[in-house]
Structures are given as C-alpha cells and as structure tokens.
Amino acid sequence: MREKSQLSIDSASQEILNNIPEVETIWQRYEKMLPQCGFGLNGLCCRNCVMGPCRIDPFGEGPDKGICGATAGIISMRNLMRMVAAGSAAHSDHGRHIAHTLLMTGEEKAGDYQIKGKEKLHALAKEYGIDTENTSDNQLAIEVAKAAYSDFSRQEGEMSFIKRAPEKRQELWRKLGIVPRGIDREIVELMNRTLMGVDNDELSLVKQGFRTALSNGWGGSMIATELSDVLFDAPKPVRAKVNLGVLRQENVNIVVHGHEPTLSDIMVVAASDPELIKYAKSKGADGICLGGICCTANEILMRHGVPIVGNFMQQELAITTGIVDVMLVDVQCVIPALGSLCKCYHTKMISTSPIAKFPYAEHMEFDEKNALDIARKIVRTAIDNYSNRIKEKYNTSSETMDCVAGFTAENIFTILGGKYRASYRPLNDAIISGRLRGAVGIVGCNNPKQMHDYGHITLAKELIKNNVLVVSTGCSAIASAKAGLLKPEAVELCGKGLREVCEAVGIPPVLHSGACVDISRILITLCNSLLEGGLGNDFSDLPVAGAAPEWMSEKAV
Ligand code: SF4
Ligand code: MSK
Predict the structure, then answer these.
(1) How remote is the CA of residue 46 from the centroid of ligand 1, in Å?
(2) What number is the average pLDDT over the span 452-479?
(3) What is the DSSP letter of 497?
(4) For the chain, what is the mean pLDDT?
(5) Minimum-distance ligand to the CA of 444?
(6) Which letter does DSSP use for residue 8 in this model?
(7) Is 36 helix (H, G, I), strand (E, B) or coil?
(8) Band of the pLDDT at 116, cuts 50, 70, 90?
(9) Helices 454-465 and 474-482 meet at what angle, rounded to 10?
(10) Atom of ligand 1 at shortest distance to CA of 75?
(11) Percentage of the chain surpassing pLDDT 70?
(12) pLDDT band, residue 419 (cuts 50/70/90)
C-alpha cells in the first residue's frame, strides 16, 4: 500500500485523505486489485466470443493463439479498436443529446433554454448550406439540429465538418479511405469488424479505428462543442476558484458531476434563484454553492465562472468532506461506488439521465420540457438535506486556487490580435521567430495507477519552462487550475520566450479550453493557425503534440 502522501500531489486532496475515516475509496480498491492481470494489462486477453475467454502468453510459454486462431496482434488490436468504438460512442452521444436540446428549443418545446449564441447559430447554418435570409432563429436552430442529426445517420459520402480540416490532410484521409461517412455507421462497423471471424487484419482494423475516431473528433465531439456554444453561448475568459475548499460548511452545497451542460447550465439558473437562496437562509445556511466535478464543471466554469470542486479522482473526496448536500450526476466518469459512499454520509445522490442509473441513487429524470422546475426541485432537495448533516463527520479543506478559464478557437483570435486586428499572427510569428517552440495539448483523466495530477502538472511545468504553450481540456485542465498554472502569474515558471508572449497578450501559459469534448476546439485552433500562414499546410507541419498522461476512459483513445 502506498503512503497517503504518494496518492496525490494536490495538497487539498492530501489534506482530506490524511483525515479520511474508514471508508473505501478508489485508491484502496486499486491496491486491493493488485497484482492486476498481466494478460489484460498487455491487451492479450480476449472474450469476444464464447469459445473463450482466451489469453496469449507474452513470454512464449503458453498458447500463442486463441481458440479461433487469433494471434496476439489481432486480439490486442481488436481490444484497442473496441475502446475506440466505445469512446467515440460516448462523446458522440453527448453531441446527439445537445442536438436534441437545440431541436426542442427551436420547436419551442424546451422553454427554459434560449439560443444564446446567435452568431454561431448563423455561422453554422451557413456552413451547413442552410439559407439564413428570412429564416427565424428558431427555424435555423431546427435546421442546424437536423443537419447535425444527419451527420450521425449518413450512410454514404462525407461528414460535414471534415471540410474544416486542412486540404492536404483531407486528401490524405481520402487516399487512405478513412474519411468518416456518418458517426453511427463508423461505430457500428467497427463493432462488427471486431466480432469473432470478421476483420482479422491489424492494419485493416486500425484504419477503421482511425475512421471512427475521426467521426468523433470532427463529428460527435465537434457537434457537442458547437451546438453547446449555440445554446449556452461561446465561453469567454473568466476568473474563478477551484479545489475542494470551494465547498464551505456554511453553505448548502450542490455538486454537479458528469458531462452534459443541458443539466448543469440550468442548475446555475436554479441555484441563483432569489427565492431558493431565501429558503436556504431560512434553514440556517449562508447561501447556496454550486460546484462541479469533471467536465460538466468545465462547461459551467467557462460560461459562468462557477467554481470547480475537483477532477475525476476527487469525486469521492468531495463526499467525504461531509458537507455535500446533493451529488447530482448525469453521464460519464461517475464511478458506481458513489452511491454507497453517499450512504455513509447525509449526502443525497441524484441521477438524472435515462441512460445512466446508479446503485443507491435517487432518480429524478431530467426532461428539457420542464428543465427549470426539475432543477429547482433538486436545489430544494439539497436545502432540505442541509439540516441532516453529521457534523462529527466533517473533513473539509479550505484550499482553493484562482484560475482564468474559457479560451476558445474564436476568442483567441481577439486575445492574440487585439479587437481591431483579430488574428493568429502574433502566435505564428512567435513560433517562426523561435520565441515559442510550439504548443502541446495536455488532456484527459486521472488514474489511480499514477499519483493524482502528477503526470499533468510535471509535463505542463516542463513544457512551459521550455517555451512551449500548453492548451488543456478535461480533468487535465482542472489539475493545472489547482496547481496555479491557469493564473497569469504562472508566467514566472515559463522560459523567456513564452513569458514574453504571455505577458504581451495577457494570457496564462496554460490555456483552459474546456471539457473533454472540447478537444475539438484545439483542432480548430490548429486549423486557424495554419490558415494564418507561414507555418505550413498540414497539422504535421506544426510544432505541436498531444498527450493524455493520466488517461483512464475509453473516450481518451
Ligand atoms: Fe478466443 Fe477467438 Fe473467441 Fe477471442 S474470438 S475468445 S480469441 S476464440
Ligand atoms: S471527465 S473522460 S475523467 S477527462 Fe471528461 Fe475527466 Fe477523463 Fe472523465
């Protein structure tokens, strides 16, 4: 068993872990699982049919083929490709749900939502080839949502946003036959090809894996980002606080956890309702604190400055503070252990998505038609639960950090170039002159196999020290926020060239660009940088790289 000090580099998490009572967390469950199965770790275990399970001995002492004859290469590639299919399905279904909410908003069936990003709605409509003249915003919303739907169901041809990629890259994708047709089609085909007895050629399998991954990056994830900007408006740089200390004993604390902003955004409205704040005060609380975990936290941080409680590995720690009155969840990255942990405290866990139910959670199904009423009911539940707290179980931290978040491919234009000559020129020139050596996207999750946040922070610090700009999303961005790397003052940790660039344009050296689906923002930023000129014609010409140093979810593949 590792020492508690070896579990996390985040001092607020360490503080909670040091005082944690006898409850089991993800770290203990990981230790109990050791040693983990070596066949599984190497991707050499297969249970794709019921002749198995089969495993290949990597040391050549046991079977070198599965019962069907599948080699180590075929088995490990099929396993990896199934991860691509599942991850693409998850991000893309998120995009589909946002398209559904946009459609309902356009049809005036979701009265609590408005189209806040009208500029983006019109730009997208034009891109989809929809006539924007003499068409109401509601009608445009309907047509854009339906155009997005068609990117899911298209059987032939090419997905819409592929045209956003550099032409040279598109040509390469076409030559390789990996331009995605429709999102659903590519995922289904990859599942079919990984079935026993279908595609048994590693190269052929990986090509369909690329096609499916592209259908996510330039499809499902991009649709989620773009349509979220239409509904909730595009983020702008915003100051906020992050880490477990944003939960205060005196407040009614509601933690939203998961991914889809349809729920979290409306919770922002409900939690600031004066009537409900008055109700909270009537129960003895100072007010209502809404905070977030994981990527839904990133969504409302970027658009409303809502504080972040923590990233993936902190979801249980939040509950063990004893002061979370409601843990509100939707989809993805919500560990199944949460419900039973809540039972050790007064915390009510509430699930909301029809596709994601949890042991020991109360289910209040979210419905866009009555979104605000449901959100208000949840806030009221939290307020009513405030008096059930067990003070002897309090285990809080007061630690918070300031951060600036909300950098998008669009707003970086004006930040870099200034209001009157919005441009990526300063970024490109800084790279050409050698002041900036390049940029790296650090993204993804946490994983108990590694010290919490260590990979993200060590890599980010080393890069900025060496004049490499960092762009970050997901739980990695939250890690950087907690470590103070999203503050303008973090320039002190930068090499000379990066420091000059950051100080000249007023940005921190690590740019928070959103939730895990918002990796699509990084793709568009790269396209814009290429269009600005001087750095080449394709992604491979740019001095850029990507890393997910603590990944755990199939979405990261
Ligand atoms: Fe074994 Fe082949 Fe079946 Fe996999 S598909 S379980 S390797 S027989
Ligand atoms: S929440 S997918 S742990 S980034 Fe998007 Fe964090 Fe990874 Fe979930």
Answers:
(1) 6
(2) 98
(3) H
(4) 96
(5) 2
(6) B
(7) coil
(8) very high
(9) 70
(10) 7
(11) 99
(12) low
Residue with tokens 């059930």: 388
Per-residue pLDDT band for 420 (boundaries 50, 70, 90) equals: low
Tokens encoding 303: 């658009």
CB atoms within 10 A of CB 312: 26
In 3-state terms, what secondary structure has residue 382? helix
- Region of 43 on the Ramachandran plot (φ > 0 left; ψ -120 to 50 alpha; else beta): left
Quick: pLDDT tens for 55-67. Answer: 999 888 999 999 9
Phi, psi of 552 (to 5 degrees): -140, -30
* Token couple for 46: 């297969």
> What tens digit of pLDDT does each residue of 208-239 get?
999 999 999 999 999 999 999 999 999 999 99
**Do 378 and 356 touch, CB atoms closer than 8 A?**
no
Expressed in angstroms and rounded, the spacing between residue 65 Cα and the centre of ligand 1 is 9
- Residues 315 and 320: their CA atoms lie apart, in Å, by 9
CB 475 within 8 A of CB 555: no
Strand order across the beta sheet in which 251-257 lies: 362-363, 348-351, 326-329, 251-257, 287-293, 308-310, 238-242, 401-405
Structural tokens at position 249: 């004993």
Reply yes or no on whether the pLDDT at 464 is more than 70.
yes
- Average pLDDT in the 173-200 region? 98
Closest-CA residue, ligand 1 atom 2, reads 68
Q: Torsion over CA of 547, 552, 553 and 557, rounded to 10 degrees? A: 40
Q: Are strands 401-405 and 238-242 parallel, antiparallel or unpaired?
A: antiparallel
Ligand 2 atom 3 nearest Cα:
445
Contact criterion met (CB below 8 Å) for 8 and 313: yes
**Residue 418's pLDDT band (boundaries 50, 70, 90)?**
low
Mean pLDDT confidence for 333-344? 98
In SS3 terms, 113-165 reads as CCCCCHHHHHHHHHHCCCCCCCCCHHHHHHHHHHHHHHHHHCCCCCCHHHHHC
CB atoms closer than 10 angstroms to residue 298: 33
pLDDT of residue 538 exceeding 90: yes
State the closest ligand 2 atom to the C-alpha of 516, by its place in the atom list counted from 1: 5
Q: How far is CA 404 from CA 237, 303, 507, 511, in A?
A: 6, 12, 9, 8
| Angstrom distance (rounded) from CA 174 to CA 163 | 12
Q: How far is the CA of 190 from the centre of ligand 1 (A)?
A: 17
Give helix then strand counts, H and E, for the chain: 22, 14
Q: Please report the DSSP string for 215-226 in residue order.
A: HIIIIIHHHHHH
Q: Calculate how far, in angstroms, residue 555's C-alpha sits from the geometric centre of ligand 2.
A: 8
Closest-approaching ligand to the CA atom of 551:
2
- Kindly state the average pLDDT of the residues 5-21: 94
CB 546 within 8 A of CB 456: no
pLDDT given for residue 414 in this prediction:
83
